[in-house]
């Protein structure tokens, strides 16, 4: 890997390039699933290639190839240079980068049990036990369970002299039960929707999730939801479980703080952000108990956004985003940090593989735990509690959002009084976070993985981390998704 | 492309030999990949400018009623041998599936020409020049441009040891542009297998005109409005439902068509086909097992008539496969992917002229399913939302959130334009008309 990266770097050095970096990457993954008592799919894949990013004439060019012969690498290098030079046709200024040091490092993410050493038949057997438990519940039409494992080794080399060898193991697992009855579809998922929980771990994640133990409850809830009352429409105190709150953070804090969005880079596709530069250190983003960080360091936990160096060779960092409710920081790159006069990038550039350029992406954007007990979070005279995301949507500047959840409960005096189906809530991002009234403590905090975050053109799909504890919000609009 | 096909055939022979060396005679190989390039611009300048090439070999052996898949992009002799060995190893560890069918046999299929040499050989300079000219149009309107111009080639081949050999080469060009004014924006996008099929300058003019026309947006209350959806908005919204026109989805209970097939659920004026050979469509004329795609009448004057079947779903239902299966093994089965919705004879201008009060929508965004059976979707309007009053576009309006049942929407259509190839961001490109419908459910208004 190292030789390939250095070969590509040599191919562009001295050809009018002011900066270049190369990432050679080898990815191996395994996906297995079951569906209604049978194997759904078993597959593995590997992908090897490299991407050359150059700056020439003050413009970026990038070319990626799976042809790792000397000729293939030289062709990619020449193409990257041609592409960069073509950019001069529509150039307003020459790109400048915030300074960065050079690093030489080898880093492997913690992985107690290498998932690729566990046999497929053992993994399938675990899924089939879950499947059996789900289908034991009468009324379950579709039982699905899955696991996903990935090992990604990346060698980064740049004209700054950095040589960084990183290997990351990620794992994901989960299941769902769907019930169709009398013109209604209800579904429950565990431990989260979209395939379950994902973390920077090995097979130990599967053992930690207590999948089999939770299958009967989830299956029962999927069926009982048919006879639950429809979630009412109106203003309520709202309590969210930590997985839904993780996605709320992702959409209404994580994306708006991407500085490339703020500066217009994503205007045609993902959109822009309400967090214009004049808002920094001025906007009251949330109530005083809201503290949010962007933290790629291992100390934050085994998140999908945990690494040692980002994809332009900047070390993982902790950045305050919201402190005591005040908006205090963006996620940056070397280019965008320079644009707003920051001394240094805070290390958020990530690419989803060797074929794509790094973009500013969430690392682990997390809500710090609060000081309340779980009882105190639930201690509202009348509230709606919602669990597990079902739908999510937010406008292209990240003001107006609407989320649906799989299940809800009406709460009175901290007690569940009735189950509610089709719960949803909506609002404006800053109004929502300013209504945050209670956040549970660290013993209830979970670092969730979102494996499917899309951004960029061509689109890249990235895994991001979001830590959260259950929290309560005052007077939130509930139920408008079903308002007729 | 001829060289690429020879390379693919050679690699397939190596895979078959590697499988036979391990005693496995039934093997399927899928080749997918190509060369793609994209020039991206924002703030009136090119800021991201990329190219990539990749070709993957994906192997599925069948051993005693078992099948698994292994994929690689290492296409040298060692890589091919390794991926075959990996696929056989995975396959041998799973339980037999009594419903698994033998590999598909050799078939005849019509091969649409969707390869343009000029598009395949587009240079970075050609893309950059087209982008520079489009930016100039928007700049001259006192606005800021952002967008992309992409060109590329793809190859998709399915070959198996029973003699099936199907292959499709295609080029695709896409141009998308957003024009931003002080408090408004406009957007336009087009795609075609031949880059001559659209004109970036015209798209830039459209985006700039919409941005100018929607300036100083009014704040209207949410509620039910007559709506005029331009083709891209129709595509992105209506396109959300076709995954349910699937025999496997219906068997699973996850389709809104459960207990609805044969019934009239949409208006008389709604007829929708899946037709890969439509000249405005794109993509390969066969599915993930190499079965030729058959034209389907999905909706006939409001009645759901046909659904897609992969081979296995067809065998289970006693039906014929329609050529819409995804590569096996998978859980979802099949789906129509070449949608052609019949249009009408009302132009967009006539729709506006006939509307006393309504909302004209350029584009929708972040569309997600709220209710899987009533097919309620939420999402936002974006980049050109207008109030129509007294038969004229009266003003731009702040963007809306909607929560709208597609079943209800397609019951309420009162006018359709001629159909065109449309390109959006939330569904596959389709051939669709603009439409006018009553009682569209806007539930909230955002801040811009």
Walkthrough of the structure:
The complex is a heterodimer of chains A (484) and B (448). Helix content of chain A is 20%, strand content 39%. By secondary structure, chain A is α+β, with helices and mostly antiparallel strands. Chain A folds into two domains: 2-227, 2-Layer Sandwich (PmbA/TldD fold), CATH 3.30.2290.10; 229-482, no CATH class. In chain A, the strands form five sheets. In chain A, strands 1, 2, 3, 4, 5, 6, 7 and 8 form an eight-stranded mixed sheet that branches. Chain A has a five-stranded mixed beta barrel with strand order 10-17-18-20-24. In chain A, α1 packs across α2 and α3 (120-135) packs parallel to α5. The radius of gyration of chain A is 23 Å and the shape is globular. The model of chain A has no long low-confidence stretch (mean pLDDT 97). Chain B is of the alpha+beta class and 448 residues long. Chain B has two domains: 2-197, PmbA/TldD superfamily (PmbA/TldD fold), CATH 3.30.2290.10; 217-448, no CATH class. In chain B, α4 packs parallel to α5. The interface between A and B is large, with 88 and 94 residues. β2 (38-56) of chain A pairs parallel with β4 (69-72) of chain B.
Short description:
The complex is a heterodimer of chains A (484) and B (448). Chain A is α+β, with helices and mostly antiparallel strands and 484 residues long. In chain A, 20% of the residues lie in helices and 39% in strands.
Low-confidence stretches of chain A: none
* Biggest interface, residues from each chain: A-B, 88 and 94 residues
> How many strands, which pairing sense, and closed or not: the largest β-sheet of chain B?
7 strands, antiparallel
Instruction: Characterize the main sheet of chain A.
Output: 8 strands, mixed
Kindly report how far apart the N and C termini of chain A lie. 58 Å
Judged by helices, strands and strand pairing, the structural class of chain B is alpha+beta
Tally of separate domains of chain A: 2
> How confident is the prediction overall: mean pLDDT of chain B?
97
**Quaternary organization:** heterodimer
User: What's the alpha carbon Rg of chain A, rounded to whole Å?
Assistant: 23 Å
Structural category of chain A: alpha+beta
Strand content of chain B: 35-45%
The total of helices of chain A stands at 10
The average pLDDT of chain A is 97
Number of strands of chain A: 24
* End-to-end C-alpha gap of chain B: 48 Å
């Amino acid at each position: 890997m190292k030789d390939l990266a250095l070969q590509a770097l040599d191919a562009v050095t001295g050809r009018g390039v002011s900066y270049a970096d190369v990432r050679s990457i080898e990815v191996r993954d395994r996906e297995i699933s079951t569906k209604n008592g049978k194997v759904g799919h078993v597959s593995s894949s590997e992908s090897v290639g490299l991407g050359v990013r150059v700056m020439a004439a003050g413009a970026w060019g990038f070319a990626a190839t799976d042809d790792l012969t000397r000729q293939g690498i030289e062709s990619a290098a020449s193409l990257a240079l041609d592409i960069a030079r073509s950019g001069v046709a529509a150039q307003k200024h020459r790109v400048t980068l915030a300074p960065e040091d050079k690093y030489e490092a080898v880093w492997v993410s913690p992985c107690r049990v290498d998932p690729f050493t566990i046999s497929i038949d053992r993994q399938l057997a675990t899924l089939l036990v879950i499947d059996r438990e789900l289908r034991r519940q009468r009324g379950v039409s579709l039982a699905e369970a899955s696991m996903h494992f990935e090992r990604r080794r990346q060698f980064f080399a740049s004209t700054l002299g950095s040589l960084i060898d990183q290997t990351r193991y990620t794992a994901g697992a989960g299941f769902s039960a769907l019930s169709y009855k009398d013109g209604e579809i209800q579904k429950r998922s565990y431990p989260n929707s979209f395939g379950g929980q994902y973390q920077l771990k090995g097979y130990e994640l599967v053992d930690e999730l207590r999948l089999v133990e939770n299958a009967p409850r989830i299956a029962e809830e999927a069926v009982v939801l048919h006879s639950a009352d429809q979630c009412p429409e109106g203003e309520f105190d709202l309590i969210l479980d930590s997985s839904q709150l993780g996605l709320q953070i992702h959409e209404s804090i994580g994306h708006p703080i991407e500085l490339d969005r703020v500066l217009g880079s994503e205007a045609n596709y993902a959109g822009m952000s309400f967090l214009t530069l004049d808002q920094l250190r001025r906007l009251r983003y949330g109530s005083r108990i809201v503290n949010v960080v962007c933290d790629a360091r291992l100390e934050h936990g085994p998140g999908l956004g945990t690494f040692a160096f980002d994809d332009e060779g900047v070390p993982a960092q902790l950045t305050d985003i919201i402190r005591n409710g005040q908006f205090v920081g963006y996620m940056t790159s070397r280019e965008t940090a320079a644009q707003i006069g920051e001394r240094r990038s805070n290390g958020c550039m990530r690419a989803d593989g060797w074929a794509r350029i790094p973009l500013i992406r969430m690392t682990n954007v997390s809500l710090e735990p609060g000081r309340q007990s779980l009882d105190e979070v639930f201690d509202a005279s009348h509230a709606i509690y919602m669990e597990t995301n079902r739908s999510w949507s937010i406008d292209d500047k990240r003001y107006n959002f609407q989320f649906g959840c799989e299940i809800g409960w009406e709460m009175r005096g901290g007690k569940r009084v009735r189950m509610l189906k089709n719960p949803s809530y909506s609002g404006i991002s800053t109004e929502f976070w300013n209504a945050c009234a209670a956040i549970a403590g660290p013993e209830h905090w979970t670092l969730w993985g979102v494996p499917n975050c899309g951004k960029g053109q061509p689109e890249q799909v990235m895994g991001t981390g979001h830590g959260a504890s259950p929290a309560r919000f005052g007077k939130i609009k509930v139920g408008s998704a079903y308002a007729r | 492309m001829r060289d690429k096909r020879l390379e693919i055939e050679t690699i397939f022979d190596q895979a078959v030999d590697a499988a036979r060396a391990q005693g496995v005679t039934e093997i399927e190989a899928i080749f997918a990949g190509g060369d793609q390039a994209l020039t991206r611009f924002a703030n009136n300048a090119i800021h991201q400018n990329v190219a990539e090439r990749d070709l993957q070999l994906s192997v599925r052996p069948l051993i005693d009623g078992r099948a698994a898949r292994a994929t690689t992009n290492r296409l040298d002799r060692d890589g091919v041998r390794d991926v075959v060995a990996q696929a056989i190893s995975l396959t041998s560890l799973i339980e037999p599936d009594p419903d698994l069918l033998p590999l598909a046999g050799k078939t005849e299929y019509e091969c649409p020409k969707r390869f343009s040499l000029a598009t395949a050989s587009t240079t970075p300079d050609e893309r950059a020049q087209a982008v520079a000219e489009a930016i100039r149009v928007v700049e001259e309107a006192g606005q800021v441009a952002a967008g992309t111009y992409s060109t590329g080639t793809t190859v998709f081949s399915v070959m198996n040891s029973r003699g099936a050999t199907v292959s499709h080469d295609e080029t695709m060009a896409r141009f998308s542009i957003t024009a931003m004014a002080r408090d408004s924006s406009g957007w336009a996008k087009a795609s075609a297998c031949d880059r001559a099929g659209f004109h970036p300058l015209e798209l830039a003019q459209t985006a700039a005109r919409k941005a100018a026309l929607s300036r100083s947006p009014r704040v209207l209350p949410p509620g039910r409005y007559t709506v005029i959806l331009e083709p891209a908005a129709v595509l992105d919204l209506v396109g959300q439902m076709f995954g349910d026109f699937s025999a496997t989805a219906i068997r699973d209970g996850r389709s809104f068509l459960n207990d609805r097939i044969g019934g009239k659920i949409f208006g008389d004026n709604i007829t929708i086909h899946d037709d890969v050979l439509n000249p405005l469509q794109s993509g390969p004329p066969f599915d993930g097992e190499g079965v030729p795609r058959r034209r389907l009448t999905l909706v006939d004057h409001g009645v759901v008539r046909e659904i897609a079947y992969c081979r296995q779903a067809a065998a289970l239902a006693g039906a014929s496969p329609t050529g819409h299966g995804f590569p096996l093994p998978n859980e979802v089965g099949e789906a129509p992917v070449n949608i052609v919705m019949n249009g009408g004879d009302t132009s967009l201008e006539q729709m506006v002229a006939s509307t006393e009060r309504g909302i004209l929508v350029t584009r929708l965004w972040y569309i997600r399913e709220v209710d899987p059976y009533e097919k309620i979707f939420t999402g936002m309007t974006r980049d050109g939302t207008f109030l129509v009053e007294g038969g004229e576009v009266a003003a731009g309006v702040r963007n809306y959130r909607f929560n709208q049942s597609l079943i209800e929407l397609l019951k309420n259509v009162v006018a359709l334009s001629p159909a065109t190839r449309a390109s959006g961001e939330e569904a596959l490109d389709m051939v669709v008309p603009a439409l006018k419908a009553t009682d569209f459910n806007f539930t909230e208004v955002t801040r811009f």
